[in-house]
Write a structure and sequence with these properties.
The chain is built from one helix and eight strands. By secondary structure, it is mainly beta. The chain is globular and about 35 Å long. It has a domain at 1-29 and 46-65. The longest helix has 7 residues, at 69-75. 7% of the residues lie in helices and 31% in strands. A hairpin with a 2-residue loop joins strand 1 (16-17) and strand 2 (20-21). It binds zinc ion. Zinc ion (ZN) binds at residues 3-4, 6, 13, 15, 21, 23, 25.
């Protein structure tokens, strides 16, 4: 699943607020997955030159939305799950996107 286009390519995207993407896209290319100082994962994103065209905009790995294949297949929905660790506590944040007819 790809996010966007947003930012300068589409300032009217629903994710835009005060000229910034509320989902923090465009992400940065990273050579490995790390955890930031707040405990959130910064996923590996290869700069391999591959792009797809969405509308008039080319999107690369910086626009890929992470997903869990097993949850996607089981629930037939995109479920955005992030695990964050902070001060010894673990929290799982999730958003579920399903078709209205399947709810
Ligand atoms: Zn956005």
């Amino acid at each position: 699943m790809m996010h966007g286009p947003c930012g300068e390519a589409n300032i009217y995207s629903p994710c835009m607020h005060e000229k910034k993407c509320t989902k923090h896209f465009t992400k940065k290319f990273n050579t490995e997955t790390t955890i930031d100082e707040d405990g959130f994962p910064i996923y590996k994103r290869r700069d391999d030159g591959r792009q797809i065209k969405k509308g008039k905009t080319n999107l690369d790995n910086r626009f890929v939305v992470p997903y869990n294949r097993d949850l996607l297949v089981k629930f037939q929905a995109h479920i955005n799950v992030e695990c964050a660790t902070c001060l010894g506590q673990s929290n799982i944040y999730s958003n579920t996107f399903t078709k209205a007819s399947t709810m």
